[in-house]
Fold this sequence. Notes:
Elements: H1 12-26, H2 33-40, H3 44-47, H4 53-77, H5 83-100, H6 102-109, H7 118-134, H8 142-164, H9 174-194
Amino acid sequence: MGRPTKENSLTSEDVIEAAISCLDREGESALGVNRVARELGIKPPAIYKHLNGNAELRKAVVLTIWREFLKYCQGKTKGINEQRQLFKAGGIANRDFAKLYPARYKVMMQYQLHPTDKDANAVIKQAMGWFQQGIQGYDLTENQLIDAMRMVNAAIYGFISVEQAGMMTFQRSNDESYEIMLDALIVGIEYIRGREK
């Protein structure tokens, strides 16, 4: 990665890019102003001109990862129109992203986005739009949509977390189990749709 030659040429994008590079190589513990400053070859105060401390750095990194994740998933589902295939392709893209970028996925999923935060709200709306696209045709009410999103997120994130922790030790293909889970989630969404509105 090209580094700014002077501290005053640094941008917030440079800081976020460096933080994500550190995250990919060293894991979550590398997400700190001091570590990112070392990565950029600058002193920590230079970062504070762009991001106000570790909390703001983490938030900026998480929002960037979410945008990358959604772009990746949208690319993997583009052109798929059949409802079940679209849902399953989205689920597979989710897991593939987690395999490609395990530390990014973990940090992204463990950070609570608040709808009252305008930057986070934009990402939440984008994520909900992508999810709605994946279940288009089910005609869910707002509450049913929330229930379906919670169910799907819990199942997919739970599966990926257990898999990343190396806890799937049975002699059974993880891929096959994951595909069956996605099929079961479709049945679950249909169940939610059939409940009283």
